[in-house]
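Technical annex B. To support the medicinal chemistry partners, we prepared a structural model of the target in complex with iron/sulfur cluster, based solely on the information shown next.
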Amino acid sequence: MTIHSQPDNALAFPDFGDPGFGVYVHWPFCAAKCPYCDFNSHVRLKGIDEERFVAGFAREIACMRELSGPREVTSIFLGGGTPSLMKPQTVEAVLSAIAGAWHVPDGIEVTLEANPSSVEAERFQGYRSAGVNRVSLGVQALNDKDLRFLGRLHDVAGAMKAIDLARETFPRMSFDLIYARPDQTVDAWTAELEEAIGYAADHLSLYQLTIEEGTPFYGLHKAGKLKVPDNDQAALLYEATQETTAARGLPAYEVSNHARPGAESRHNLTYWRYGDYAGIGPGAHGRLTRAGHKFATVTETHPETWLERVEARGDGITESVELDTEEQADELLLMGLRLREGLDVRRWQSVAGRTLDPAREDFLLRQGFIERLGNDRLRCTSSGMIVLDAVVADLAL
Amino acid sequence: MDTPLSHIRNFSIVAHIDHGKSTLADRLIQMTGSLEERDMKDQILDAMDIERERGITIKANTVRLEYDASDGEHYVLNLIDTPGHVDFSYEVARSLSACEGSLLVVDASQGVEAQTLANLYAALDADHEIVPVLNKVDLPAAEPERIKEQIEEVIGLDASDALEISAKTGVGVPAVLEAIVKRLPPPAGGSREEPLKALLVDSWYDTYLGVVVLVRVIDGTLKKGQTIRMMGTEATYRVDKVGVITPRMVEVENLQPGEIGFLMAAIKEVADTRVGDTITDDKRPTATMLPGFKPAQPVVFCGLFPVDAGDFEALRDAVGRLRLNDASFSYETESSAALGFGFRCGFLGLLHLEIVQERLSREFDLDLIATAPSVVYGMTMRDGSEIELHNPADMPEVMKIEEIREPWIRATILTPDEHLGPILKLCQDRRGVQADMSYVGNRAMLVYDLPLNEVVFDFYDRLKSISRGYASFDYQITEYRASDLVKMSILVNGEPVDALSMLVHRAAAEKRGRDMCERLKDLIPKHMFKIPIQAAIGGTVIARETISALRKDVTSKCYGGDATRKRKLLEKQKAGKKRMRQFGKVDIPQEAFIAALKMGDE
Ligand SMILES: Nc1nc2c(ncn2[C@@H]2O[C@H](COP(=O)(O)OP(=O)(O)OP(=O)(O)O)[C@@H](O)[C@H]2O)c(=O)[nH]1
Ligand SMILES: C[S@@+](CC[C@H](N)C(=O)[O-])C[C@H]1O[C@@H](n2cnc3c(N)ncnc32)[C@H](O)[C@@H]1O
Ligand code: SF4
Ligand SMILES: [Mg+2]
């Protein structure tokens, strides 16, 4: 196993203890449903009453502000679904509702997820004017055959156009690829990845294809009609990904996310550093701390039901539960260890009210799955990262 | 109550497994109007969850029926539905001693099976009058005439007046009720004036009611307020309630000779109620005790340990209560280096073991580890002393042993002709020695002598699968024979797991070791490191497998919305880990301990 040892990241947003406060807004509609996707996304052939949704978002934002208290926002993320189907005015209205609720300093990261199939120059310009300064494009693959297999509405040419336009219009941009596709060889993927890095700005998200329950791929997979790489092959692909990206200056700062040092996504770091975030829109999750108590919020997932609920009572929240210390400790651990910078052990101890099991930690250290960085940080080594879920399960007990 | 003895009938329903006893009980309950239609369901007497899930009867059950016969008279019928599986034969024996007659049910499409014979002999032993009943005549494959011939030929019972019924559709069942009244005898003797003498037939623990005791009154009267004495255990209690089961529990004034019913008496010591004991009046005791039941002879032993050592007391409580309900199960405390405190338990067979284990975990919410089942070995030591070995982990040093003996059984197997070949091979592979083979029509009846330790694990399962369910099996322990047995240990990641060690015949050791290692390889999940699994005799490794290390186990995508989902998964994993035991850093799921012993296709 040859994995590049990566230099310690010099993050643009070093973890000084405050993980920030992010605002996530979910746009639950897509032009078509991709066969692998289990996100809360719906297709509406009859069109969508965007004004009504804007009003709904605004009401829920006000309500989340009540729950969170006054905060300074460190990032905003418009995700989906396909937020690039929103009219620029809609985006603008949502962003100004957020600015009306919390303090939004100038220049913070504002990301919008975009599908290459719904990219138009005019629209992009509109988003930019509305305040979006970063886009994340769902490119997924750089060959037409695989794009068709993934059920995507765009082809490689469309993706290239979208990438170019995004780079012209926004200060920052990233794109997503899905790999570990059926029959994908390490060579083929490495070549595709090299090409992608050539088009990339300073951030890439590289996900292994996951067969999610309830999707068409799940049914095909179960019936034996769709074969994904086995664990050994998936491991080889993962390792090749780490090597290639590191060599080209885009090392992983999280399991599947790569950036030039300093170009990490502020918003997603908040998730992994287990900061607070308000989750707005259908099926959005949030974590909000008040007076030392941490609450997990979930909203109604079905878009129209969510809307009716918001209109009737001001928010679409279906669940708001306080997390006990064990639950918080688990979440902090499983999110934190995903990061290259690792887990702030002192913070974990103060949340959990105990120390990590020394025998288990020692065992994992000796096996070379984790390492200590000074006294306060614990992180996975490259061989630990690839079995992270097992490492977490071992440490969590 | 005032039913004259002549108008009481006590009878058991006996048969081979699945021949329709419980379904016939349903029809009898229904046709005598003992339950409202809306309260009826299939196999209503199989009340336990495990019974319903597996579709088999495990516990014998008693119901009192009121029947107006065609002679214009009113009768009280006490029915006992019994289990058919060989592992529960103790339930049958107990039930028979509370009755004077039996309905011998035979599936008219399958005919006489091994347990048909075994149960018939048991009923004859108990001096029962027998009414043969051919069931399932609604099936196209039913051949009542041929089966009648078979009954006469194989078991020498007059089948000319056997009843032909379908317990499912109800056809012929009214004639069964009439036959019970006309052909089965009323309880013999019994005098109300004599001192109380009652047989303790069964007992169980009810969460709401406490200990409930089922009795059959022989002499005298049992009533509320009376102080009774259990003659065997010498415990005395004041009776709080007496009643009958219809199948609801209905309180009555008293129980008289010939009657079967329950009593409750604020019994605290579970050990005070011993099935087979004689219950009498404390002030005016009967002179003679009833012969009682032969104690059950456990043939398979295994250790049961709580996964969480802190649950030991809860387990002690649970085995006590279960034993109250299942007299064929026995236990004593045991301690193990790896597993801490637990119980060495004895069972009538592997199904029995499985059921007890499942009942303990379900009814008492306990997580258990069961060690490898073992039979009882006899040993003569070099110094002349004799040892009984219940647990392979206690095997003395080989140098000190003069001779090891193992129990042998005589097995009777009935099978359709076409499966004979594979069955002969199975018996041969298990060191069997053929004693007899004969034909009943196109069915072969095989008699084999087999070492019990080759049978306890999965012989029955294998037999069923190679005969597609058609072969039936019954056995009795015959004798102990000297044998060349060795202790095989299993090492996981270099550490011996004593719960998996076993005694095997030297000639079979290597194959057995390979099988075990292969099985464990599938049963133990991959870990972050590779895990060697070895089978060894003394210091010599005879088989080895390696579980490769986890190559990749990481969730690719995990954002804000996934935190909850991932946490819940983690909580499940943590709970799962609590149900495992660690041996040499390896988590072994509890199911693995028994599953490892079931040999695969050979
Ligand atoms: N076709 C048909 N099926 C029947 C009849 N009687 C019982 N069965 C079926 O046979 C199966 C076994 O019936 P049970 O009544 O549970 O048999 P059992 O003898 O009590 O079984 P154990 O208690 O496990 O020994 C069930 O699926 C019944 O529905 C019958 O008269 N006709
Ligand atoms: C919120 S999704 C959708 C973004 C946008 N709608 C699109 O599809 O272009 C973000 C990313 O998750 C990844 N993704 C979604 N489902 C996946 C799956 N089953 N396996 C791996 N990656 C997946 C895709 O790369 C996708 O771009
Ligand atoms: S476009 Fe994106 S969100 Fe929509 S279905 Fe496809 S992957 Fe899912
Ligand atoms: Mg039954």
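Notes passed to the chemistry partners:
The interface with chain B takes residues 22, 24, 207-208, 210, 231-232, 234-235, 238, 255-256, 268, 271, 274, 277, 279, 283-287, 296, 298, 327, 330-331, 334-335, 338, 363, 367, 369, 385-394, 396-397 of chain A (CB under 8 Å).
Chain A is about 40% helix and 20% strand.
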